[in-house]
Design goal:
By secondary structure, this protein is α/β, with parallel strands linked by helices. 47% of the residues lie in helices and 29% in strands.
């Protein structure tokens, strides 16, 4: 059992990929035995607001499972959406 698990998001995060990624991520978070979760966005090529929604959902899932959560390497387009949505602070804190 690891203290930290990583969830790697990759590719394009938009309305075409969001629903499947949501289900997969939720299942992975639920099955994780680690105390902490890192959501790694370093392989995300492009993201709409769907990507930001996924991050928020995954954070909620992790919190519900009693896991600390942090986000690594959020792409600039996601940062801009977070800033406009006034979510920057929420996403910056584990």
């Amino acid at each position: 059992m690891s203290d930290v698990d990583e969830l790697l998001l990759s590719g394009v995060l938009d309305y075409r990929t969001g629903a499947d990624l949501r289900k997969e991520g939720q299942a992975l978070i639920k099955s994780s035995k680690a105390a902490s979760l890192v959501i790694d966005c370093s392989a995300v090529k492009k993201s709409s607001s769907v990507g930001l929604s996924l991050l928020l959902c995954f954070m909620r899932d992790a919190n519900a499972a009693g896991k600390a959560v942090s986000i690594r390497a959020m792409p600039e387009d996601m940062r801009e959406i977070a800033q406009v949505s006034e979510l920057t602070e929420l996403l910056a804190h584990p």
